[in-house]
Amino acid sequence: MVELLSERVSRIAPSATFAVKAKANALKAKGVDVLSFGLGEPDFDTPQHIKDAAKKALDEGFTKYTAAAGIPELREGIASKMKEQNSVECSAANIIVSNGAKHSLHNIFQAMLNPGDEVIILSPYWVSYLEQIKLSEGKPIIVDCDEQFQPIPDKIREAITDNTKMIVVNSPNNPTGAVFPKASLKAVADIALENDVYILSDECYENFVYGGAEHHSVASLSPEIAEKTITVNAFSKTFAMTGWRVGYAVAPEPLVKAMSSLQGQTTSNVNSIAQKAVIAALEGSLDDVKNMAKAFDERRKFAVDAFNSIDGVKCNKPEGAFYLFPYVDGLYTEKVKGSSAFCDFLLEEAHVALVPGVAFGLDSCVRFSCASSLESIEKGLKQIKEATKAL
Ligand SMILES: Cc1ncc(COP(=O)(O)O)c(C=O)c1O
Fold first, then answer.
1. What is the CATH number of the domain that holds 82?
2. Boundary of a domain, candidates 216, 248, 283
3. Which of 126, 208, 246, 278 has most ligand 1 atoms within 8 Å of its beta carbon, as the pocket-test mutant?
4. What is the CATH number of the domain that holds 380?
5. Do residues 12 and 147 share a domain?
């Protein structure tokens, strides 16, 4: 019988965060009050001036197709932002606007990978890198970070082969919240230069860094590194705009052109109204973003201490993003063995939803998102502490 699905699509694993959501919803449907800490999006509303710009665009009839790579005004605005905020030299010709960072990443893999090309991913990693690389017929090569979730340059060097095409770097990191210091980024970039491979730097959480940590764009480290780096970013997390779907890539011009052709034949432009809205985000103040970061910082501090007060749990203090990735393997038992079983246990016994670390490449941990109010974090951690006493 003819196969319904392609081999390509059969290779993709479903999203772990959606699986958690489905389980939590099933419990909610039975009337249980479930606290969800699985979410990867800010619990804040999009700032008003951004919404106003979208309303204005709509009222002015800005509702037609635009250039596939984005309207010139937006590409120029992003290039200016990259120069001013990230110290990355570029022009509008180096910018392509896509439907969120996820779409930028997919198009980069599609435009750069040949079958069998190897892509180094640092573990723990954000789930979609792995699946997108496989979808583009590339081969993900996983290299573990250390226990503090920092890259180990020697391990990365050892993983390089003649087939290596690029190294993916994500700082501030999802799921660990780790921020890679400038020296680590430089060490990874030097390995890329020595071996003539590219760096793909996902900087979606750049505005969420705490306690003196600093975000550095890989492409800002030297002109040679800039030439070998493709930067991905989005308005999604920074401006609490996950549903608007606007992300971008900063890349060498030939790659931008190839991705524009790809977009032109597949999705075409990003929603015209959303493009106008993010111009307002670029031009407006970052006060709302700073307030969000302040709230995440406060929640992070509380949650780290609360996790570390549970016997058998060890939680690094993340310096960025809005996730915690505590080690919970000290609580694993014969019956509750591994992060998936542990998350099922927490859902059933503590009525809290977390994402199993195995989905991000590390079964000793679970991911806890601080994108909920401090009150619900306090309540959730109390319930976790109480329930885990039985283990
Ligand atoms: C590290 C990382 N990169 C990219 C994305 C995708 O962002 P967007 O919603 O802009 O597609 C996410 C979203 O969770 C993420 O955590």
1. 3.40.640.10
2. 283
3. 126
4. 3.90.1150.10
5. no
Atom of ligand 1 nearest to the CA of 104: 11
Query: Does the beta carbon of 40 sit less than 6 angstroms from any atom of ligand 1?
Result: yes
Domain that holds residue 248: 64-283
Q: Is the CB of 267 under 6 A from ligand 1?
A: no
Closest atom of ligand 1 to CA, residue 99: 11
Is residue 54 domain-resident? Answer: no
Distance 331 CA to ligand 1 centre (A): 30
pTM: 0.97
Residues 88 and 211 in one domain: yes
16 pLDDT higher than 80:
no
Q: Are residues 272 and 298 in the same domain?
A: no
User: Which among 78, 102, 169 is the best mutation to test ligand 1's pocket, defined by most ligand atoms within 8 Å of the CB?
Assistant: 102
Does 94 lie in the same domain as 193? yes
Q: 206 C-alpha vs ligand 1 centroid, how far in Å?
A: 12
- Alpha-helical segments (H) within the chain: 7-10, 16-29, 48-59, 72-86, 100-112, 127-135, 153-159, 182-194, 223-227, 253-265, 272-283, 287-308, 339-345, 374-388
Whether 115 and 167 map to the same domain: the answer is yes
- pLDDT tens-digit profile of 44-64? 999 999 999 999 999 999 999
Are 72 and 98 part of one and the same domain? yes
User: Quick one: pLDDT band at residue 14, thresholds 50, 70, 90?
Assistant: confident
Task: Using the structure block, give the residue that is written with the tokens 């087939």.
Answer: 163
204 CA → ligand 1 middle, Å: 6
Instruction: Report whether residue 236 contacts ligand 1, using a CB cutoff of 6 Å.
Output: yes
